[in-house]
Amino acid sequence: MSSIKATAILVGAIPLLVATAISTNVFAQEPKAPAKDYNQRALEIYEFRKAAASGAERGQEIFYYKCWFCHNEFVQGIPQLKGLYQNSKLLSGESVNDDTVKEKIRNGGAGMAAYKYTLSDADLNDLVSYLREKCCWNSDTPPLNPRYRMR
After folding, report:
1. What are the distances in angstroms from CA 99 to CA 45, 96, 133?
2. Are 38 and 44 in contact (CB under 8 A)?
3. Cα atoms found within 13 Å of the Cα of residue 59, Cβ hemisphere only
4. pTM (whole model) above 0.90
5. Angle at Cα 105 formed by Cα 99 and Cα 110, nearest 5°?
6. Closest CA to 131 of 140, 145, 119, 147
7. Which of 3, 6, 43, 119 has the highest CB neighbour number within 10 Å of its CB?
């Protein structure tokens, strides 16, 4: 008989526990992402921020990891990106500006990967600023490592 009373007490307590949990928002809490620690080298590598936080220097790093493998002087049949803004033939006769270059990178093309899900708008802005201002280096003299201090 005592087990029946204990079960009845527990069953009666369940709505009270649920009401308490809902009123204190135990179930409604969203998990929070941990704060980013930019002192961690791995985060800088993951977000392409080893060379710089933004701008053409960061774009150079993105170019190295995403574009250089195909668009270098050793690969035959793939256009070089040096002088991209002066050469309208590279984008099928379209006028070359920042928007057309971004669209080509986002959507890809015949023989070119699309990066619309890989690169964010900030990544594209930095990459395009590098292509417009500084592109491209000679593979015999790659860019210097900004963290290496010569003695």
Report:
1. 27, 8, 15
2. yes
3. 19
4. no
5. 120
6. 119
7. 119
Residue 11 is predicted with a pLDDT of 52
- Rounded mean pLDDT for each run of 10 residues along the chain, 151 residues in total: 53 56 59 74 72 82 88 84 75 75 90 91 93 81 68 60
**71 and 81 Cβ atoms separated by less than 8 Å:** yes
pLDDT, residue 8, reads 47
Query: Which tokens sit at 125?
Result: 């802005």
Q: Which amino acid is at 12?
A: G
The tokens 């998990």 sit on which residue? Answer: 31
Longest dimension (CA), the chain: 92
Taken in order 93, 106, 73, 50, is the CA torsion positive or negative? positive
Pair of tokens at residue 43: 């985060």
